[in-house]
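Chapter summary example.
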Amino acid sequence: MPGKIKITLVKSMNGRPEKHRKVLRGMGLTKMNKTVELEDTPSIRGMVNKVTHLVKVEV
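The structure predicted for these 59 residues follows.
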């Protein structure tokens, strides 16, 4: 059973490619410093890997 990970948006989406914006919105991150708690699955990990420079991850 997968655990949970906390993902926080620490840098702005402004000026980022549309692919990055879609990934962030897909994870539920819409505003700066917003934190979401998601299941630790391979698909979520892949999304995080696309935008590692914009988010902070806590296991």
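To summarize the output: Residues 18-26 form the longest helix (9 residues).
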